[in-house]
Specification:
alpha+beta; 3-stranded antiparallel beta sheet; 3-stranded mixed beta sheet; 3 helices
Length: 136
């Protein structure tokens, strides 16, 4: 499946993006570490957000199929940048699984990190590392 995402520079260091399939909109802003004000997501923030959303979505799909109660699962990610060239160097974070996930379910859910199409699309030099918190 393919579709378009359109972008328009609206001024004041912001770009408005439109998801052409749904009409949904969001704006990006220049980040403070690159001379901006960081009023909303930067383009590289969207990469980190895409990993979070993708992994949770894939996990939820698996959980539904396996009958695992998944509500309340969450991921926090930290994005690290480098200079020369300016790029994302690492996405590290914490996956919090809901109570009641057994070891076998946990293993299947964690495999979703590498199964996520966004994770698979990242340059191999980007470190992608998560720790997991779960309560039996």
């Amino acid at each position: 499946m393919s579709f378009k995402i359109s972008g328009v520079y609206v001024g004041d260091d912001q770009v408005e993006l439109t998801h052409d399939l749904s009409g949904g909109k969001l704006r990006t802003d220049l980040p403070p570490d690159n001379g901006g004000r960081g009023r909303t997501f930067s383009p590289t923030d969207l990469t980190a957000a895409s990993v979070v959303s993708c992994v949770l979505t894939i996990m939820a799909k698996l959980a539904h199929r396996e009958g695992i109660k998944f509500e309340g699962a969450s991921i926090e990610v930290e994005k690290q940048m480098t200079e020369n060239p300016r790029r994302i160097s690492a996405l590290t974070g914490l996956i919090k699984l809901p109570p009641g996930i057994d070891a076998k379910q946990r293993e299947k859910l964690l495999a979703c990190v590498k199964a996520c199409p966004v994770s698979r699309s990242l340059h191999p030099d980007i470190k992608l590392e998560f720790t997991v918190e779960s309560k039996p």
